[in-house]
Prior knowledge:
Layout: H1 14-22, E1 27-30, E2 35-37, H2 38-54, E3 60-63, H3 69-81, E4 85-88, H4 95-106, E5 120-127, E6 133-139, H5 140-153, E7 162-164, H6 171-183, E8 187-189, H7 195-204, E9 209-212, H8 214-227, E10 237-240, H9 250-256, E11 261-268, E12 272-278, E13 287-291, E14 296-299, E15 313-318, E16 325-326, E17 336-338, E18 341-343, E19 346-350, E20 356-361, E21 366-368, E22 371-373, H10 375-383, E23 388-398, E24 402-411, H11 418-426, E25 437-441, H12 455-466, E26 474-476
Helix pairs in contact: 1-2, 2-3, 7-8
Amino acid sequence: MVHPSAPPWRLVHQCVAHWAQQRPQALALCSEGEQLSFAQLHQRVQAAAQALVQARAAHTVLLPLQAGVVESLVQFVAVLASGRCAALGDSAWPLAMEQSVRAALDALPAYVAQQPDLAPFYIGFTSGSSGRPKGFRRHHRSWVESFVATQDTFPQVLQGPVLAPGRMGHSLFLFAALLGLWTGQGTLVQERFSAEQTWAQLQQHPGCTLVAVPSQLMLLMQLAARKGWAPLTQPRLVLISGARWMREHTPRLRQLLPQARVVEFYGASEASYIAWMEVDPQAHPQVVGQPFGQVELRIGDAPDAPQPPGSVGRIWMRSPMLFMDYVHAHDGSAAQRVGDWLTVHDMGWLDAHGRLHLCGRASRMLVTQGKNLFPEEVEVRLLQHPAIAQASVHGQADGLRGQRVHAVLLGAGDLPAPSALAAWCQAALEPYKTPRRWWRWTGTWPQTHSGKTDHAALQAAVAQALQGQVPAQLRPWGV
């Protein structure tokens, strides 16, 4: 059942028609080169939806995102308004990959939902460990519940437009873009992320909510420091997700945006919101906060056998915001269901106050000296060092230790000596978690299509180097 505080509409796209009637001249969408009111957006959506119906388009429409961001959003909402499901591809996909995805979508049977809000409206794609796009399907109710959870938990979102300065192929920014339409406050977008444009948009729109990944905020703070910009009082809310926020930068962010409530949240493409917390530089490095109001959490090998507080195990969640299913090739990183419960194979623990602590992904856990080690914990510590821009930690087979801990680093300047790096780790972590081998990456940092570190590529590069074939971008550090 939809939350009692939800608006009267039950489908994601119906907000556009509602606000076109209630606030026709209000800002709906705005980019660097185009601006639409709700009345204009509604008119374009209806025309595009009618064209789809007349063309007898497939029940799932793949949008490759080759148009501008405003037009892409118009087309996305139009697909929904026509009663279809929109799949958002990636313009960077090779032709063979796009053809594979399209064939999988064409083979999908028509979905008959018991209720309209349980019908699929969106298919997004993430990269699995194989690098192949993994399609996840969402129904209307899951995102309606997510929008309502945003308003209930962060009422500041109703004070102004939502700034979503990322690619619509990233579900975080698509959600943010639709959130601004949902609230009726409008959405600000960018064709390509620009810290300077972000600053200008925040200045021009009082009460704005900024949804960002940590790297975007870092670029914004660096530019503001370089240009000597005065603090901005207009923004009211900053929502951070997509990667771990380096909390030592929180004082700088608060100084730059002194009137904004700053929140980091943990979520997943398959689960929407999971847990959240106000940013706190003094918080435990692994804590990601309390579960959202409609989210239940359990820790253990299975949801029906939960472990006591403080025990590390698989994170299971139950909420009305969970995804439907996968619709394209996926690998062992796929989420798993047991009844109403879901896990995305992240490992963590609950403290005595019910706050969730995130250790890392089960597939990345390694065993060294007979103990479990989550590379994410070591990476967080390394990234706190001012001389390190990127870090990837993993294990290589070792006859004595089981796995030997290696670290690949991209310097923000001159890297410290390995002894200094080891001391930096041991000041906050147990000795067995300290990397034993250090590598420096000299090229462009490998990333997945979603902009996250490609740990598999880096691990393969180290394995290749250990076999005597050192990749050009990789250099032993301190050897």
